[in-house]
Design brief:
275 residues; seven-stranded antiparallel β-sheet; disordered N terminus
């Protein structure tokens, strides 16, 4: 199944930051916040952008929404950069460049299941929106450790997406993992495409499950991205491919061919970091 919405040779990419103003923001869960910017990057679901906070740093983030002249980024506070970002208020300005990379395929009149773990759920809503525009039936599986960390549940349901929940502790939805729900759907329903974003161990299990059941699958692989367009070499897999260009979205078959997929990635200094 081809990636029919990926950027081609004539896709305009902003390689220098454009100024965006924070128009709105809200808390999705503890230490997870969605930022709204007026404007667009003309991105495709699954692509990412580089967010620059002047005087601080620049980091990559998946795009949670890019339509109706609104750009949404859902961001987890995990380090010094995001701690500084979380101090910004409405009206403050940042720099954003992109969009970069290959995104998720969109299909017409098919049955699609999207599997999101943690804040990896956010870009899948953008993906669901595009599928539904094409007449496809979408099921969203959202997982988290507990109910307090679930995100985008209400927004998905309000959008008309069939939404299934899994929490490790059973505090909301089914007790267990997103893969438990996916396995049941694969056995009980005719599914044409599975797409997933979230923890890499989860995505590896999803990819293996789909291959075993002969269902097309795409995964979004996160690596340490600095430039966004294949120059710095920071985001290469152990197979030597730049994920900012080859990915972040690749087929399950390609993802499983990477020896580091689901096992480890490399940090800013090239050190191995286990998932």
């Amino acid at each position: 199944m081809g990636c029919n919405n990926c950027p081609g040779l004539h896709h305009q990419i902003n390689t220098e930051p454009a100024v965006f103003t924070i128009a709105d923001m809200w808390e999705e869960a503890k230490d997870i916040r969605t930022y709204v910017f007026k404007g667009t990057l003309n991105s495709k679901p699954g692509q990412f952008c580089m967010l620059w906070v002047p005087g601080v740093n620049e980091k990559p983030f998946s795009i949670a929404r890019d339509y109706d002249n609104e750009l949404w980024l859902t961001i987890c506070k995990v380090g010094p950069f995001t701690e500084q970002l979380f101090q910004l208020q409405k009206g403050d300005k940042v720099g954003i460049r992109g969009a970069f990379g290959h995104g998720f395929s969109t299909v017409k009149n098919k049955k699609v299941v999207l599997v999101g773990g943690g804040y990896g759920t956010a870009p899948l809503h953008f993906t669901a929106y595009r599928h539904m525009q094409e007449g496809s039936e979408v099921t969203m599986i959202i997982g988290a450790r507990n109910k307090d960390l679930l995100i985008w549940e209400k927004f998905c349901k309000d959008t008309g997406i069939r939404t299934l929940l899994a929490t490790n502790d059973g505090s909301k939805g089914e007790k267990g993992f997103t893969t438990d729900i996916l396995l049941r759907l694969l056995k009980e329903e005719q599914i044409d495409l599975v797409q997933t974003c979230g923890p890499e161990k989860m995505m590896k299990a999803v990819a293996e499950m789909c291959l075993e059941n002969k269902v097309s699958c795409e995964v979004s692989i996160e690596r340490y991205m600095k430039c966004g367009f294949g120059v710095c070499g920071q985001c290469v897999t152990e197979s030597g491919e730049n994920m900012c260009q080859t990915g972040p979205v690749v087929t399950a078959e390609k993802a499983l061919s990477y020896p580091d997929f689901g096992l480890y990635h490399r940090g800013s200094e090239g050190q191995k970091i286990s998932w």
